[in-house]
Amino acid sequence: MTAATPAPRRAGRPPRSVLSRDRITAAALELVADTGYAGLTMSALARRLRVAPSALYNHAGSKQEVLGWIQEHVMTMVDFSAFAEEPWDEALRSWAWSYREVFARHTPLIPVIAVLPVTDAEKTLRMYEEVTLGLTRAGWPPERVVPVIVALESFVYGSALDVTAPGNIFDPGALADRFPAFTTAVRLAATPAADESPADIAFRTGLDGLIDGLRVQLGAWLQAEDGDR
Predict the structure, then answer these.
(1) Per-residue DSSP letters for 130-177?
(2) Contacts of residue 36, Cβ cutoff 8 Å, sequence gap at least 6
(3) HEC letters along 172-215
(4) What are the distances in angstroms from CA 50 to CA 22, 46, 79?
(5) What is the DSSP letter of 24?
(6) Tens of pLDDT along 197-229?
(7) Domains of the chain, with CATH numbers?
């Protein structure tokens, strides 16, 4: 009886996972979506990518660096193109709707992105540059631009969370009879006459008020500037 001939050994190294910034970012987004921000650790990310932590660290030096990549990836989804062609108030409105839509799909990232520095984040800084140019062309003083951006973003982040909030968040339950005015308001808000969701109506209401108030502020500033000439 002759011994079986061993199978020839395959040439080359065994297949290995190829890491890249895009692949790491996509895996990190999936991990945050599945486990929340608290679940995003470098060891958990390495397991998600099926690589050793040392291999991950060869591409991303820290969790903070990965967060920066996530920020850049998500911010590229926000449409700010209207600032190049629309009046500042309509551009601000368009930007806000796009911004909310993006973060309504990535709500676990809101507590992170809202306070993450934009240092060296080229794509995010490009967005802010175009917003700044659009506002200053309309007459906004440069020192008021960042407060306008922060005011809008604060509203957008909260509104993005509202999109995914439970429909009964304001239900007074067994205490409805004790608070009849609010109970009636909640019932009417839950059955809007327009073909719009309660979250969209709330966002439109707040955004209209915010932009109207900013128009008043800009008008007063421009009037004061004319008076000083």
Answers:
(1) HHHHHHHHTT--HHHHHHHHHHHHHHHHHHHHHHTS-TTTT--GGGGG
(2) 108
(3) CHHHHHHCHHHHHHHHHHCCCCCCCCHHHHHHHHHHHHHHHHHH
(4) 15, 6, 34
(5) H
(6) 899 999 999 999 999 999 999 999 998 877 766
(7) 21-74 (1.10.10.60), 78-164+196-227 (1.10.357.10)
| pLDDT single digits (tens) 101-139 | 999 999 989 998 999 999 999 999 999 999 999 999 999
Question: pTM to 2 decimals?
Answer: 0.84
Q: What angle do CA 27, 37, 162 make, to 5 degrees?
A: 110
- Which residue matches tokens 């007459």? 139
Tokens 């999109």, located at residue: 163
CA gap 37, 73 in Å, rounded: 16
CA 213 to chain centre: 24
